[in-house]
From TrEMBL:
Taxonomy of the source species: Eukaryota, Fungi, Fungi incertae sedis, Zoopagomycota, Kickxellomycotina
Organism, as annotated: Coemansia nantahalensis
Name of the featured protein: Ferroxidase fet3
Top-level taxon in the UniProt lineage: Eukaryota
Amino acid sequence: APLLNDTATNSTVDWDFFQDIDLVPIDKIPAPGVNKWVPLEVRTAIFDDYREHLAFNNRTYQTPVVPSLTTALTTGYQAYYPDVYGFKSYPIILDPLEDIEVAIFNKDVSSHPFHLHGHSFFIMVRGTVDQNPANRLTPEKRTSPMRRDTITIPPMAYAIVRFRADNPGIWLFHCHMEFHMEQGLALTFVEAPYRIIANTTRPDQYKRNCDLMGIPNSGNAMGRTGLDMAGEPRGPFPLSGF
């Protein structure tokens, strides 16, 4: 079979970067509208702990003391409050069947493959954020957008994706390079928390595993009641000039 290249296929697909926005789905489903807009700027910097971190909107992810699913199931009406999930888990609350548009601006020097759990999103637009007009890509829109659960965004580029909040749960959105996730490049979509409560029962094994690992089986991100988040980590934060 011939190699995929511009000459043979009249496509922007090549081996350096795969333009998944050029793909055409067999089942052409219209993209949802927009009820909530989530802008995410990706940066790397030296933070005030004197380590290099990656971050969405200057917030680095850290796993909460109590799993977010446990928090959703044990905090009652406060499961709708983002604070109970912890600042460092970067919780974004989604209403049932809300249409979400996520704009990811990669200001980092590396490419990042971003993966969304629980959904396939529509790739609406790709473009560049390069300040040099000669290097800018002209954004293109698609009438029948391709659907993916992972999208790679090159340095100084952006992508706009959409999905419908039709799958209640706690869903990570993160870079699929695990060491980048360890550096903080992740956040949490808390989707339809009241429906999670109504339709989810934790199996006994879930609770036993938490007991064996010393993880609380109830409470907010810090294992406390309500909005008592005493001792919650909030930093580190980027140092000025980095």
